[in-house]
Amino acid sequence: MNLFVGSHLNLMQLLKVGASRLALVAGVSLFAANVGAAPVTAAPTAQIGITAAPGTARASTASRRAAATARTRAKAVKARAASKALAEAKLPHYRVDEHGDVVPDLRAAAAIIYDPASGKVLWEENSQDERSIASITKVMTAVVFLESATDLDQEVQIVRADTLAASTTFLRTNDRVRLTDLLHLLLIPSDNAAARALARVSPLGYDKFIARMNQKAKDLGLDHTSYADTSGLSSDNVSSAYDMARLISYAAEDDRIGPVMRTPEYTFRTGAGRIITVRSTNQILRAGDVEVRGGKTGFIAKAGYCLATLLKLPQGGPSLAVVVLGASSNPGRFWETRHLLDWLTERTNLMSLITPAVPVAAIAK
User: How many domains, in total, are found in the chain?
Assistant: First the structure.
């Protein structure tokens, strides 16, 4: 009797297991039939898996294609906008002033043409307005750093505070680099981590370094200039086109700063052997058709696109500072600078002022 009961129980368990497997197979087959798939044949339980339905796969593929199409269209829209901005920037704008003279019709927020030899302003618009100057800040960072730097071949280590949220940098935490390489990174590709590192390793330390930047501005008579950080990421770094024309003229004459600002491309090796190549953000310098004696770009949202340059006039003319602040596009700042230089060159040619005997500053009214 006990044997019968045991056998009966084993038989019932086998029947239940079999029924369960049949139900599972039937359920899978019914699901496949509902989505238009071929019936699923029975398989060992351990081999049964769940696969995406063809309809779902088609929907996923369609979504990916739609996303790719949207990206392509966005790139095309961006490219058309960039092309339009470039075409607009290349076109010079002029107007007739109250004296009946043809003068530049500025599209940036402020600009100036300044003769450092005479200290005269040859042309300006809103040149005394205080504005955020972004990475033009780095010119003063270089000036202050070099006041106390003695060995530019000294190697220093980059720390996390240098690279954290640095936006533009070619450096990595724990890199070991020479001070001269940091100076080149500062002024050529406008590296923000390099700006922080130079201040940090200076004898002043970071906070006193910024205080010295502000004191140096006062020493140079830059009355509309103040600094809150060493890189220009802070919108609280402010100045005027007039002040920046004077500063770029001063810095370009320093034989440790001027040659760096005139370098279109620079390559160096970190202590660990990593090779870094950087290129100047100054498109006029890279084009090579105008003699650039010094220059620095800058951009953050509040400042707009900025450029401070010291350029040499053609045909043996003098070096003049041209500063453009608050242009609306990257090419705009470079073309606005070119238009100002072309206008001045044409004006001086018409007045026969480019001769050794007559300084160009004589055209100032």
Answer: 1
